[in-house]
Structure formats: structure tokens, C-alpha cells
Amino acid sequence: MQENRWTAVGKALMPLIMQTLKQVELFQGLTSQQLERLSALCQTHIWSRGDIIFKQGDPANTLYVIASGQVEIAVHNAQGDLTPEIYLGSGQIIGEMGLVDAGTRSASAIAAEDNTHIYSILADNLNRLCEDDTALGYRLMRHIAQDLSFKLRHHDTTIAEQ
User: Fold this and answer.
1) Domain containing residue 155
2) Domains contained in the chain, number
């Protein structure tokens, strides 16, 4: 496995990051200025196929935005083996639950393709931004609540069908 390569975001990458963030449902409705402030918090990572982004049980202290590539979300089954649950791609987020409860990761995230580009935002930095800009904070938390509600309803439906 290749070690993760990451770089701090420079001004040259800001337009690209802002364009990606505009496509993410979580950030819909943010102003250009808010997106710029959010983009400034991002670090960019390039992962190779099989690289572990985070493991189930790790501290949940970072939000990730998939810019390109694919990420496998997997959980440990009763035998302790990792079982793929879902694949996520460009414009989708992972790690949002940690913004709400600051718990541990409920699943593992693994790069499913070479050159998977992901932007990360530390929860502490995002929380400070939300405190500084309460309109941004309200919109983000509302979108997170809607996303988690949708996932919970989908999960409940899946259980009822079994």
C-alpha cells in the first residue's frame, strides 16, 4: 500500500475546490464567500486503491469530500471480516456523523480506485467556522440532519423488508 500523499491547499487550488464543494449537497445554498472560507479549511489527499482513509472505531474528527474516484465503506461482520456496504463517488461526503456526535467511526473507508482525490476538513476547524458564521453553521447542520434522517429511514425500510 502506498502512503497517502497530501498537500495544504494553495490559492491556485481554491477555484477547483470551490467548484467541487458547490456540487456537494451538504454545501448547497452557501454563498461564494462562505464556500471560499470553507475551501480554505480543506486539505487535499490523493489515495491509491486499497489505502485506508479511516478505520471503524477511529476517532471521528474529520469530514471528507470525495472530489474524484471511489471510496468503499465497509463494516466488520460478526466474524471480524470487513464487509463492503456501499461505494461512494465524486461529490459525496463521508465522516459527517462525527460533526454531530464527535464519537468514533461506525465504518471503515477505503479508496476503491487509484488517484482517489479527497478534500478533508478537521471538525474543530469547521466548528469554529460555524461559530463565526452562524448562517453557514445553521445551513450545514440542517443539511446534515436531513442526510442522516434519510439514511435512517432507508435503514429502517431495509430492516422492515428483511
Assistant:
1) 5-161
2) 1
- pLDDT of 101 strictly over 90: no
Tens of pLDDT, residue by residue over 108-135, are 999 999 999 999 999 999 999 999 999 9
Average pLDDT for residues 20-29, to the nearest whole number? Answer: 92
Q: What is the CATH number of the domain that holds 40?
A: 2.60.120.10
The answer to whether residues 39 and 21 touch, using CB atoms and an 8 Å cutoff, is: yes
Per-residue confidence (pLDDT) for residue 9, from 0 to 100: 47
Q: How far is CA 44 from the centre of its chain?
A: 12
Edge-first strand order for the sheet with 5-8 is 5-8, 43-47, 116-122, 62-68, 93-94
CA atoms within 13 A on the CB side of 150: 7
Alpha-helical (H) ranges within the chain are 14-22, 32-39, 97-101, 123-132, 134-161
Pairing state between β 5-8 and 62-68:
unpaired
How far is 154 from 158, CA to CA, in rounded Å?
A: 6
Dihedral sign of CA atoms 39, 42, 44, 47 in order:
negative
* Average pLDDT value for residue range 52-63: 94
